[in-house]
Design brief:
Blueprint (H helix, E strand, L loop, with lengths): L2 E5 L2 H5 L7 E2 H4 L5 E5 L6 E5 L2 E5 L5 E4 L5 E2 L1 E5 L6 E9 H11 L7 E15 L11 H5 L4 E16 L10 E8 L5 E18 L2 E5 L5 H5 L4 H12 L4
Parallel strand pairs: 1-14
Antiparallel strand pairs: 1-8, 2-7, 3-4, 3-8, 4-5, 5-6, 9-13, 10-11, 10-13, 11-12, 12-13
């Protein structure tokens, strides 16, 4: 049995509920690989084998060791016996979203991918830290720092979600990147990689964890009519 553990929903970020509702100590009990963001939408989080990295709004990569640090949203997992080795001679978002997703028949399942190797080009965004009163994720991403680099070795980590669950998380691939030298990373917008090796896993289920003791989460109203479009615009990858 292998599950994706997701704390809260991406909708809380769209709705500007950016206070942290789970600590890293608690989150890491549920997975040693994953991604997320910190309180106030403070950067992009990459978790690789229990090591937690934050890419902040300046593009600086920080190794986070304070287990009391909190997150409003995160997705993590523990690799299981279902994990499969993966090798791609060349890859970009088009391949992952179309050919790869079709070949692996992902339309109704959650999955994870981890790829390491050489990247000819990588473009990322980094959410800048916000102060109260918080704006929505959509408002933040309209003015987000964007960084790009070429000829870099690094790791992609992230998750695939089917359209059916597009109101609780971003449908399609949600991927973060970290370079081997820990000098570059963020939320992946576009990439071209070659000779990439890693792992792939389809989950048996998803454990959706809710911050039930957080009054803002319990009381806020969901705007379902505009939610999907807002998530797609805020996540939007580029080829």
């Amino acid at each position: 049995m292998s599950n994706l553990f997701e704390h809260s929903t991406i909708e809380v970020l769209i709705a500007a509920k950016l206070d942290g509702t789970i600590t890293l100590a608690e989150l890491l009990k549920h997975g040693n690989y994953g991604l997320g963001t910190f309180t106030g939408l403070d950067g992009e989080v990459i978790i690789l084998d229990n090591d937690v990295y934050q890419v902040d709004q300046t593009g600086t990569v920080n190794h986070i060791t304070d287990m009391d640090t909190t997150l409003p949203f995160a997705s993590v997992h523990k690799p299981s016996e279902n994990e499969q080795p993966l090798s791609l001679a060349k890859a970009d978002f088009t391949l992952l979203n179309q050919t790869f997703a079709a070949d692996k028949n992902l339309k109704n399942v959650f999955a994870t991918i981890k790829l390491h190797g050489h990247f000819n080009a990588v473009k990322v965004r980094v959410a800048p830290k916000q102060e109260k009163p918080y704006p929505s994720l959509l408002a933040v991403t309209k003015n987000q720092p964007i960084f790009d680099t070429e000829n870099v070795s690094g790791t992609i980590i992230g998750y695939y979600a089917p359209e059916l669950f597009g109101n609780i998380t971003a449908a399609g691939w949600h991927l973060h990147f970290l370079s081997d030298d820990h000098q570059f990373g963020g939320h992946l917008l576009s990439f071209v990689g070659s000779q990439l090796d890693g792992t792939f896993e389809i989950f048996d289920g998803i454990e959706q964890h809710f911050p039930i003791n957080d009054d803002e989460f319990r009381n806020h109203e969901n705007d379902l009519e505009t939610l999907k479009a807002a998530i797609e615009e805020s996540e939007g990858f580029q080829d």
